[in-house]
Amino acid sequence: MERIYLDHAATAPMHPNVIQKMVETMESQFGNPSSIHSFGREARHLVDDAREVLARSIGAKPNEIVFTGGGTEADNLAVIGGAEANKHNGKHIITTAVEHHAVLHACRQLERLGFDVTYLPVDETGSISIAEFKQALRDDTILVSIMYGNNEVGVIEPIKEVGELLKNHQALFHTDAVQAYGVETLDVNELSVDLLSVSAHKINGPKGIGFLYSREGVKLSPRTFGGEQERKRRAGTENVAAIAGFREAVIISQTELEERRSRYRSFKKLFVDRLEKEGVKFFINSSLDNSLPHVLNLSFPGTDVEAMLVNLDLAGIAASSGSACTAGSIDPSHVLVAMFGKDSDRTKNSIRYSFGLNNTAEQVEKAASETAKIVKRLTA
Predict the structure, then answer these.
(1) Domains 4-12+257-379 and 16-255 equal at CATH topology level
(2) How far apart are CA 303 and CA 293, in angstroms?
(3) Cα(first)–Cα(last) distance of the chain, in Å?
(4) Are the CB atoms for 140 and 90 separated by under 8 Å?
(5) Phi/psi zone of residue 195: left (φ > 0), alpha (ψ -120 to 50 degrees), beta?
(6) Span 16-255: which CATH code?
(7) Backbone torsions φ then ψ of 156, nearest 5 degrees
(8) Are 247 and 53 in contact (CB under 8 A)?
(9) Is 139 a residue whose pLDDT tops 50?
(10) Which residues are catalytic?
(11) 202 near 89, Cβ under 8 Å?
(12) Is the pLDDT of residue 328 over 70?
């Protein structure tokens, strides 16, 4: 049985070129980038070169890139580090109800420390209202954190509009671009963001490495203490092999960005068209147009998410509920609850399909056909 992986929003397989680059680096470069001898200098050169490539991919300067252990750490450094370093200007933070837990849980921690957090609601597409954002913005707001593209339903938030509104405001503007990076064209200056988070394993790079863009002049309170790496913003010896792999993944993703966007959008259309031909009843959570090209979240009335996922897995298809699985039960997605309400059936019957490396049109069509069969069987 062919196994079809359609859960790239959770994690993506490493590109063969990335693996090769990492193996080469591990075999030839073991020096500590902070050491002044030749071994250290060679490792430092690799790190500096990667920093330049990453910075160029978002229109930033190399010294504005902070290597982290992944997207979660980047989000935590931006949210908690940004709030702590600027609390003398106020203690109000604005975020949304549909953020990744790396941001939401960081905000909850800040609330325990005495900060005041506003969680913006969203409409049924998952998008915030600019009018409600304006209403929430205060003189003592010091940080705004709004994700670029949602990891569960794919909706793209109005980041550029928010950035324009904050140009003459003291608040730092952070966007979690973990899902968007590699499939969306991102320029930190056009978006007017001060902080932006990225993770390598979403773009076919290694797990355990990411970066935080921090605009020159932005003050951050560090989350780790020890050495003076990353301009004193993130202590710890750099993971040189992972950084080299990250660089390779970025080069590939940036080179193929437009082609990937086009291919994934065609997959979404193919999947939806096949379900329609099969006569299956379903709803698209969010919008096909204003959404990330690789994320498709569908609600199947009359089904149960656990039964759907088990049956899809038995059919060789890896998908996701976008929910937290704990102790054999699936908690409702906080994103879908925010979009449709906690009593909506969509919180109990929605599946996320996400496309990526090695997926083919034939696989997508087969996955849609198998989904149709399962839905018909469960609703018969």
Answers:
(1) no
(2) 26
(3) 25
(4) yes
(5) beta
(6) 3.40.640.10
(7) -100, 125
(8) yes
(9) yes
(10) 325
(11) no
(12) no
Structure tokens at 105: 């849980």
Examine the pLDDT at 1 and tell me if it is beyond 90. no
Across the range 153-173, mean pLDDT stands at 98
Q: Residue 199 corresponds to which amino acid?
A: S
How many CA atoms does the CB half-sphere of 152 hold within 13 Å? 26
Distance CA(206)–CA(245), nearest Å, equals 7
Residue 52 CA to residue 63 CA, distance in Å, equals 9
Instruction: Encode 169-203 in three state secondary structure.
Output: CCCEEEEECCCCECCECCCHHHHCCCEEEEEHHHH
Q: Is 152 within 8 Å of 179 (Cβ atoms)?
A: no
Of 13, 10, 12, 72, nearest in space to 321 by CA: 10
Cβ(358)–Cβ(13) under 8 Å? yes
Q: How confident is the model at residue 331 (pLDDT cuts 50, 70, 90)?
A: confident
Rounded (10°) angle between helices 361-379 and 305-314: 130
Q: What is the pLDDT of residue 379?
A: 95
Side-chain-side CA neighbours of 19 within 13 Å: the count stands at 4
Phi-psi domain of 187 (left: phi exceeds 0; alpha: psi -120 through 50; beta: other): beta
123 phi/psi in degrees, rounded to 5:
-85, -170
For residues 288 and 153, what is the distance between their CA atoms, to the nearest angstrom?
10
In the CATH hierarchy, which fold is given to the domain comprising 4-12+257-379? Aspartate Aminotransferase, domain 1 (3.90.1150)
Q: Determine the distance from the C-alpha atom of residue 5 to the mean position of all C-alpha atoms in its chain, rounded to a whole number.
A: 18
The structural domains of the chain, with segments of one domain joined by +, span 4-12+257-379, 16-255
Look at residue 217 and tell me whether its pLDDT is greater than 80: yes
Residue 327 clears pLDDT 50, i.e. is over it: no
